[in-house]
Model the fold of this input.
Amino acid sequence: MKYTPLFRIWHWFNALVVLGLLGTVFLRKTFLSWRTNSEILMTKLSEIGIEITVEQAKMLAKAVRAGMWEWHIILGYALAFSIIFRIYLYFKDNSIRESFSSLDTHKKAVHSLYYLFYITLLFMSISGFAIHFHAELGFSKDFAHEIKDIHELVFNIIMIFTPIHIAGVIIADITNEKGIVSSMIHGKKKENL
Done:
């Protein structure tokens, strides 16, 4: 395989976007969880003689993570751009690849997982925009919440795929596909010594 510079740029841009989105979700579910932080805020403020309601604590905790969540939205726009650009590359890129029919069973399975990953990214982008623009689209808050539940569930595919992809590429590079990593970095496979 030989990847064009445009395809390699897309790959690394997409990787940074996906890792950034993973990072914002990780922060949202851990260190910047409004549930955990609202309890901490209530407890600590109470210790210094300031009493606040549960709703006020929730509002403050969400305000603490608002900047991080803005990054999630910005990265969502970047993901949408990346998907559109990937569709363009699918039809216009001149990277040299083996045809699907010529691949062995393992590589067909790997390529099928990539297609599942791309479909997942497309769904995540569309559902993310539907959540963010629910009012403009005429969706009720309840319907947007249902979309959000599905969005978060489907996100697990990305969370599982990403480490498997990284591990699989490293294993392939040190076993039967030497140079696969360097071909994605600078376009040429590393020569075997």
